[in-house]
Task: structure prediction
Amino acid sequence: MRDPLWTPGDTVVERFLRPDGSIGQHHPLRVIADDGTVLLGWLPADTPIVGSRLADGRLFREAPLEERFRVPRVRVADFWRDTSTLRRIADDEWSSVWWFFDADGHFLNWYVNLEVPLGRTRSGPDRIDGILDVAVEPGGRWQWKDEDEAEEAVLAGRITAGQLERLRAEGERIGALADAGRFPFDGTWTDFRPDPDWPAPGLPDGLL
Result:
């Protein structure tokens, strides 16, 4: 196992890259733990992020499905809204697991963001959003999310058919863990509370 790259309290920036290598969204995370392979990070509600919109000004979901991955995107200043998330990002896994908490700190559910892992830089982990996701409710009931978008993303060249096949396999692995009530869906970290002395993570200057 490698030495930890980050220590608790550090800020790292999770970057979501596009297939052409350009950088889309930036999400700052407060480091909770890192063993050099698996990062646990905290993104509280209302934290500034770099988001993205379609170049014509529309939000992604405002466009018809056939346009969502074909219209160019631009980066915009934004905020992480409504919920706070604890994220487990493993360097060698094609997913990251997000614990969602409401404004009072109560655990809501898990969301598994299926992703193509690209390793980590000194500033944080790099990933490609795999479009397809898995939502897991307390108790382990799970379902696929955004299957139609994932198929359209392949047609548009956003991800490859091979990547989607690997992402589906990862989703099935995650679903089996949820069915069995195994980690990370065994209640671990559902009572998490951030250190009250830590400020919200911030973005470095000059990203826009």
